[in-house]
Amino acid sequence: MTVKEYNNAVREFGDHVYRFIFRSIKDSHKADDIVQDTYEKLWRCVTEIEYAAVKSWLFSTAYNRMIDVIRKDSRLVDVESYDDSSLYAEENSSDLNEVLHRALEKLPAVQRSVILLRDYEGYNYKEISEIAGLSEAQVKTYIFRGRVALRNYLVKTSVWQ
Question: In the chain, how many H helices and how many E strands?
Fold first, then answer.
């Protein structure tokens, strides 16, 4: 990759990577740091990466860095033992977007990340499995469980009634 292609990658994908990370961890300072670290890593391997693969590389690297930050902060939730009863809300809200964002915030980091990659960024299951370092079956399972939890949250907040 050339320096010009690197600059194009920053312009073209920087906002998408930041938005993905920010939606996952809800901390703008940490999201800034993760994106900065990701582009620093890209700069260090600029001669080894083809421009055609840079978008996937950026999302994979940013995702892995985000997981490292989450683990460091001891906030990673074990999905297998996760109790989704905390997703049930008592309040009523007519703003679906606001309710959906609140529901996303309550999901475990892994579920939230794969749902954001699938539904917001438009990646397919194979691409998500490569980015997240999971099998396609795990990705499908996490997306299914996350969507069920989101649906339950929306039903409990009476958005659909």
Answer: 7, 0
DSSP 69-117: HHHHTT----GGG--GGGG------S-HHHHHHHHHHHS-HHHHHHHII
Give domain status of residue 108, yes or no: yes
Residues 127 and 66 in one domain: no
Does residue 133 contact residue 64 with C-beta atoms inside 8 Å?
yes
CA of 53: how far to CAs of 39, 56, 84, 119, 148, in Å? 14, 6, 36, 21, 33
Cα torsion through 117, 123, 125, 129, rounded to 10: -60
Q: What is the pLDDT of residues 104-151, one digit of tens each?
A: 888 888 888 888 888 888 888 888 888 888 888 999 999 898 888 888
Cα–Cα distance measured from residue 43 to residue 49, given in angstroms and rounded to the nearest whole number: 10
Say if residue 85 is in the same domain as residue 28: no
Q: Are 110 and 140 in contact (CB under 8 A)?
A: no
Q: Can you give the CATH number for the domain in which 31 is found?
A: 1.10.1740.10
Answer yes or no: are the C-beta atoms of 6 and 43 closer than 8 Å.
yes
